[in-house]
Amino acid sequence: MELTHIRNFSIIAHIDHGKSTLADQIMAVTQTVSARQLSDQLLDDLTVEKNHGVTVKARTARNLYQADDGHVYELNLIDTPGHVDFNYEVEKSLAASDGAILLVDATQGVQAQTVANLRLAEQAGLVILPVINKIDSVNAQIAATEKQIRQLNPELAQAPILQISAKTGQGVPEVLEAIVHYLPAPQGQVQAPLKALIFDSVYDPFKGVIVNLRLFDGQLQQNDQLQLMASQKTFHVHELGILTPDRTPTTTLKAGDVGYLITGIKDPQQVRVGDTITSVNHPTAQPFPGYQPPKPTVFTGLYPVKDYKTLKEALQKLTLNDPSFQISPETSDALGPGFRGGFLGIFHLQIIKERLLNEFGVEVLTTVPNVTYHVHLAEAADPKQFLTVNNPVRFPDFSQINYVTEPILRATIVTPENTVNNVMKWTEHYKGVLMDIQNQGQLIKLIYKIPLSELDYNFFSRLKSTSHGYASLSTKFLDYEPADVVRLDVRVNYSRVDALTFIIHRPDAPQLTQKLVTKLKYTIPRRLYPMPVQAVVEGKVLARVDVPPLRKNAAANNEKRSISKKQALLRRQNLNKRQAAHNDIELPQEVFNAILDLEV
Ligand SMILES: Nc1nc2c(ncn2[C@@H]2O[C@H](COP(=O)(O)OP(=O)(O)OP(=O)(O)O)[C@@H](O)[C@H]2O)c(=O)[nH]1
C-alpha cells in the first residue's frame, strides 16, 4: 500500500466515553470482522477488561476502507485505555500514530482524562479529530459539549467536529471519511535503513517475545537479521504480519505500516517497549528517544500462594507486557521468598493481580499497599540526605527518625453541582486540602492537595458513590511534604509478623489499631490455644484482642470438670503455647483484605 493511502491513528477519551464501542463499529463498517464476532467487544479481549468493562491494554487493528474517492485506504487503529492508572499505555499508542480521534461523551462533556490525553497527543505532535459521541442518548448536551471542545486549544476552535452514536452506528461512515481526509498519511522512506518502534509486546511460551511495531523507515522481510538498539540484542525474523486484530502473517512490512514480529527471543528482559529495531546490515544512525517508563507510586509485597517459581515466571512475563509494573525480590519472615511489586496506582495493582490469575493461573498473596516515604534520620551527616523506604519493614525505629516526607498529589475532581458538598466532605475526610474551586457550567472543578497514600480503594468507591458515578478524578504528582506518619507493627503471640507491618498517619492510630485488631480476631486462623494479637505503635501497645482457641478453654471457671482433668488440659495447652511461639502463623489473603478495608 502506498504511504498516501495509510492512516495510523489512536482513539483517545475519558474512561467510558465509548472508545471500544467506536473501534468495534469501525471494524464492522470496514468488514474487518464479521457481525457475529462483534457480539462481544472485540478489542477488549483480556478477561479483566471484560469483567471491569474498561480497556487496560492498548490493542491494534488494521482495517481496509474503500473511501468515497474510490481508493482503498489502510486504517490502522490503536485502541487506548482511558483510566488514569494507564496513561503509559496511551503514550505508547500515540507514539505509533500520526493522528488521534478525540472522543467526547455528549452526556458528560469534556472530563479530566479528555484533557490529560489530549495534552499527551499534542506533545506527540498528532493531528486531532474531535468527535462527539452518544448523541442518541436523551441526556446528550451536544451544543454545550461542542463549546467545551472548542475551548480546549486553538486548533480545535477551528477543527470540524463530528457527531456520532458509536452504539447505533450513526455518523460512523463520516468518521471514516474524516480519518482519510483530515488525518495525515505517514511519512517515511522504504529505501532508507530500517527504523521501527516497538510500542507493545507480549510473551508467548512457544514463540518467545512477540512485539507490535510501527515502521517509520525501511522494510522488513522473513529471516531478516535485526537488532534491538538499546539492548544490542540481535535476532532474525521468525514471522511477521499485520493485526486484523488477530495476527495474520504477511511477507513484508514497509515504512508507514503497523504490524507484529515474532522475535524468538526467550528472555523477556531483553525486549523493551520504546526500543528501536533496525537491520544488522544497514543500521539506522539515530534510534528513537524511547519512552520513559513511569515510576511506580504504589508498592506491595507479592507472595506465592503455592509455588514461588511459577509466580516468578508469570511476574517476569507480565513486566514485559506492562513495563510500568516493576518487581524486585524480597523475603518476609512470615511469608517466605516473594517480590515487592511497584504499580502506577491501586487499580493497576488490582488488574495485575487478576491478570496473574486469568492469564497464568497463578494466585498471588498481596500485602497492604504503601507509597514511598523519604525518611530523614536524626543522626544524618547531611540534613538533606534521606532514606527511601518503599517497604514498611524497612521503616526505621521511631527513635532514629528526625522527620518523614510523603508524596503529595494535586487531585482534580470534576463533579456535578448537586454532589459537590458530599464530594468535598469525603475528600477532606481523606486528608485532602482544597486549593481551588472553579465553576464550569453545571459542573464544579475542585482542586485538592492530597497524600497519595489516601487514594486507595475506599477513596475511589466513596467518590463514585457520593457523586452517583459522575465525578471524575485526575492526579498529578506535586511534591514530597512532611508527614506525621508512624509504623504500625502487629504482634501475634508476642512476636512481630513482618508481613503485617504498615505505615499510617499518627492521628488515625488510636481508631485504626482498635478496628484492626478486632478484624484480625476474626480473620487470623485459630489455633488450639488463644493467641493475643497486639497493634504496636512506637513501642506502645495501642490495642489488643485474643484470637479465641479452636476448642474450649480448660481454664474457664464455669466448666464442670474434675480438678485433675482441668490440670491435664492446662498442661497440654501450655505445651501448645510454648510450641506456638516458634510456629509460623498462617496468613491467608483475607487477613490483608481486612486491613485494606479499614477506614477511620
Ligand atoms: N447511548 C450510548 N451509549 C454508548 C455509546 N457508545 C458507547 N456507549 C456505552 O458506553 C459505555 C462505555 O463504552 P466503551 O466503549 O466500553 O467505553 P471506553 O471508552 O472504551 O471505556 P474504557 O475502555 O473503559 O476506557 C458502554 O456501556 C457502551 O455501551 C453511544 O453512542 N450511545
TrEMBL record:
The lineage of its organism: Bacteria, Bacillati, Bacillota, Bacilli, Lactobacillales. Residues 4-187 form the Tr-type G domain. It comes from Bombilactobacillus mellifer. PROSITE patterns: G_TR_2 (PS51722). It catalyses: GTP + H2O = GDP + phosphate + H(+). This is Elongation factor 4. One of its GO terms (molecular function) is GTP binding. HAMAP family: LepA (MF_00071). PANTHER family: TRANSLATION FACTOR GUF1 HOMOLOG, CHLOROPLASTIC (PTHR43512:SF4), TRANSLATION FACTOR GUF1-RELATED (PTHR43512). It is found in: Cell membrane. Belongs to the TRAFAC class translation factor GTPase superfamily. Classic translation factor GTPase family. LepA subfamily. Required for accurate and efficient protein synthesis under certain stress conditions. May act as a fidelity factor of the translation reaction, by catalyzing a one-codon backward translocation of tRNAs on improperly translocated ribosomes. Back-translocation proceeds from a post-translocation (POST) complex to a pre-translocation (PRE) complex, thus giving elongation factor G a second chance to translocate the tRNAs correctly. Binds to ribosomes in a GTP-dependent manner.
